[in-house]
Amino acid sequence: QVQLVESGGGSVQSGGSLRLSCGASGFTLDSYIIGWFRQAPGKEREGVSCIRPEGSTYYADSVKGRFTISRDNAGNTVYLQMNRLKPEDTAVYYCARQKGCFYGMDYWGKGTLVTVSS
Fold first, then answer.
1. Measured distance CA(34)–CA(32) in Å, rounded
2. CB–CB of 68/85 below 8 Å?
3. What's the rounded Cα separation, in Å, for the pair 56 and 100?
4. Is residue 86 within 8 Å of 38, Cβ to Cβ?
């Protein structure tokens, strides 16, 4: 059974850091594109970052230079290191398995809430 479980969310002040984890079961993460998405209150879900099987990465302009996506193959986990957080980063963050970066998503986690206060 394919499952994705996010963890690591929380409350932090502006300028702080958090590391989100996306643990997978039922499949091997490094065989698929895995992406992070977020949905802020009252807004549509947006793609944040993705990592491809060969290790190449992509970032939305809004997080480039502040967020880093990485993968631990042994632990079957994808991470999102978020630094220099801003209040506008406040959202529920989801990871998803997908066919391409930000499209063709077939499995989603339930999300983890990140709240950044000013």
1. 6
2. no
3. 12
4. no
Computed over its alpha carbons, how large is the radius of gyration of the chain? 13
Helix/strand/coil for 7: strand
* pLDDT tens column, 47-97: 999 999 999 999 999 999 999 999 999 999 999 999 999 999 999 999 999
The distance from CA 7 to its chain's CA centroid, rounded to whole angstroms, is 10
> What is the percent of the chain with per-residue pLDDT over 90, rounded to a whole number?
98
Say if strands 112-117 and 18-25 run parallel, antiparallel, or are unpaired: unpaired
The neighbouring-strand residues paired with 94 are: 37
- Torsional class of 71: left (φ above 0), alpha (ψ -120 to 50), beta (otherwise): beta
Decide the pairing of beta strands 18-25 and 10-13: unpaired
Bridge partners of 114? 10, 91
What DSSP designation does 55 have?
Answer: S
Residues 6+ apart with CB under 8 A from 14: 85, 86, 87, 116, 117, 118
